[in-house]
Specification:
This protein has 7 helices and no strands. The protein has 172 residues and is mostly helical. The N terminus is likely disordered.
Length: 172
């Protein structure tokens, strides 16, 4: 009984978010899209690592797979702290699956992978920025998105520089 009283008092005092355990539809859509995006980037990177013969592309692919796996864990723990019942997607969107299939069958895996990473990170960054602009978005998810944004921007820049000579990459 005292524990419930403390939780209610903490909510009233603003120490615990009033919507503790609840995520809005905007929050849930962000979580779903972010998870599917991370899953796509992980799977595409694993495919590129498997099919590419270029060590630069393979190194980048492993870096992305590792980073996005870590970010996925951070998303899961953030969501679990806010809503223990929400199921986070473990797969990719239908369009992401088509892109993965195209990557598997690409004649030039490196170019296809580079283009997919540029496209994926560009849209992921836009999605995160849009979520951060939502005034009623979950504060914990917003903090996570804000923390991950610089890393996503670096992944995009690295993808743009893949395959460029060192001088070309510096001049971009």
């Amino acid at each position: 009984m005292a524990g419930r009283f403390f939780l209610v008092a903490a909510c009233i005092a603003g120490l615990v978010p009033a919507a503790f355990g609840q995520l809005s539809n905007v929050d849930k859509a962000f979580v779903t899209n972010a998870a599917q995006s991370m899953n796509f980037q992980i799977h595409a990177s694993l495919l590129a690592n498997q099919y590419s013969s270029n060590p630069v592309y393979r190194r980048y692919a492993l870096e992305i797979a590792n980073a996005q796996t870590e970010d996925s864990g951070q998303l899961q723990s953030t969501v679990a702290g806010q809503n223990t019942t929400m199921q986070i997607p473990s797969g990719v969107s239908p369009s992401g699956q088509r892109q993965l299939d195209a990557l598997k069958n690409a004649k030039n895996v490196d170019d296809t992978f580079r283009n997919e990473m540029i496209s994926s990170f560009s849209s992921t960054i836009r999605m995160y920025q849009h979520y951060l602009d939502q005034p009623d978005a979950n504060e914990w998810l917003k903090k996570m998105a804000q923390d991950l944004l610089p890393q996503l921007e670096q992944h995009l820049e690295d993808a743009r520089n893949l395959g460029l000579a060192p001088q070309q990459a510096k001049s971009r």
